[in-house]
Design brief:
The protein is an alpha/beta fold. The protein has helices spanning 3-19, 21-33, 38-49, 64-74, 90-94, 128-140, 175-178, 192-203, 216-227, 233-247, 267-283, 291-302, 310-314, 319-329, and strands at 54-57, 79-83, 95-100, 105-110, 117-121, 142-145, 148-151, 157-162, 183-186, 261-263, 307-308. It has 2 domains: 22-203 and 214-219, Rossmann fold (3-Layer(aba) Sandwich); 229-329, Magnesium chelatase subunit I, C-Terminal domain (Helicase, Ruva Protein, domain 3), CATH 1.10.8. It has 14 helices and 11 strands. β3 (95-100) and β4 form a beta hairpin. The two termini are 14 Å apart.
Length: 333
């Protein structure tokens, strides 16, 4: 590494260390309300800073709704909750045209998708056409109502939830649509000590409230700074090797997975892993990405992008196992 680059990275590191102080402010406010679930809260910030969306899987009652509504409150942003049900229509999400007999004209009534933070609760409970309407908005950042296109507000973050235990009356998300989520987070129960605090907070006279500490403009500014985080070519190659190992495991000494994987990760995996690693480095108040940043996010970025064969399911091999083995095998720069 030449001296000029070292100087540039040092200056960038100092600037990012200063700018990333907003993360401490956000975390402090969120932790007033959300007890435990540090992993979920941190990944929400990663998605927010890298302009991605999150798919959350966990049993009911683990503060999924509370987490995203609290984050919206700390950023002084608009929040919408969409409860997905089998009778939901695309118009219930994006909006529709309403005819006014008085003016003899159609007017646009915008739907709840026009907010900064969207909670799509139990996304697999609604039919494919409703899922597609939401996922199109996620990808294009705009919706079309009656031939007229409307841009969605920025920042725009969708957190969709799935209940892993109840499969009755559900419509599983197709692989191509799941791929649009930057991260898939699996959340678990809190510890005994954490649950004791949760119980106390809910029985207290006043439930803890988060204060608004940032504007949406501050988040958009932070996103631009995250893009400046330095990523060495060796780290880029490391990301590519990890992703390619899911497509051609035999080329990385992982022949045992050759018949376990029906399809590997798409190029979105490489893009999202790189973007999320930069955001993670920013959260850790660093101006450069290290291999540990990539490794920390690998399971969350890749777990929903690996297709498993019947053979893998018969042998109880999960995508988690494959990712762990890949991380243990691919050479760290």
């Amino acid at each position: 590494m030449n001296d000029t680059l070292k100087t540039d990275i040092k200056e960038l590191n100092e600037r990012i260390n200063k700018e990333s102080a907003i993360i401490d402010m956000l975390t402090l406010e969120v932790n007033k309300v959300i007890i435990g679930q540090t992993h979920m809260s941190e990944r929400l910030l990663v998605a927010l800073l890298s302009n991605g969306h999150i798919l959350l899987e966990g049993v009911p009652g683990l503060a999924k709704t509370l987490a995203i509504s609290t984050l919206a409150k700390t950023i002084d942003a608009n929040f919408s909750r969409l409860q997905f049900t089998p009778d939901l229509l695309p118009a219930d999400i994006i909006g529709t045209q309403i005819y006014s007999p008085k003016s003899e004209k159609f007017t646009i009534k915008k739907g709840p998708i026009f907010a900064n933070f969207i909670l799509a609760d139990e996304i697999n409970r609604a039919p494919a056409k409703v899922q597609s309407a939401l996922l199109e908005a996620m990808q294009e950042r705009q919706v079309t109502i009656g031939g007229e296109s409307f841009n969605l507000d920025e920042p725009f973050l969708v957190m969709a939830t799935q209940n892993p235990v109840d499969q009755e009356g559900t419509y599983p998300l197709p692989e191509a649509q799941i791929d649009r989520f930057m991260l898939k987070i699996i959340i678990d129960y809190p510890t005994k000590d954490q649950e004791k605090i949760i119980m106390r907070n809910n029985l207290a006279k006043e439930f803890p409230q988060a204060n608004s500490v940032l504007s949406t403009e501050a988040i958009l500014k932070a996103r631009n700074i995250v893009k400046e985080v330095y990523m060495d070519e060796k780290i880029e190659q490391y990301i590519i090797d990890i992703v390619f190992a899911t497509r051609n495991p035999e080329k990385f000494g992982l022949e045992k997975f050759q018949h376990m994987i029906s399809f590997g990760c798409s190029p979105r995996a490489s893009i999202n892993l790189a973007a999320a690693s930069k955001a993670y480095a920013f959260i850790k108040r660093r101006g450069y990405v290290i291999p540990e940043d990539v490794r920390a996010l690998c399971h969350d970025v890749l777990r929903h992008r690996i297709g498993l064969t019947y053979e893998a399911e018969a042998e109880n091999i999960t995508s988690e196992d494959i990712i762990t083995e890949i991380l243990n095998t691919v050479e760290i720069p």
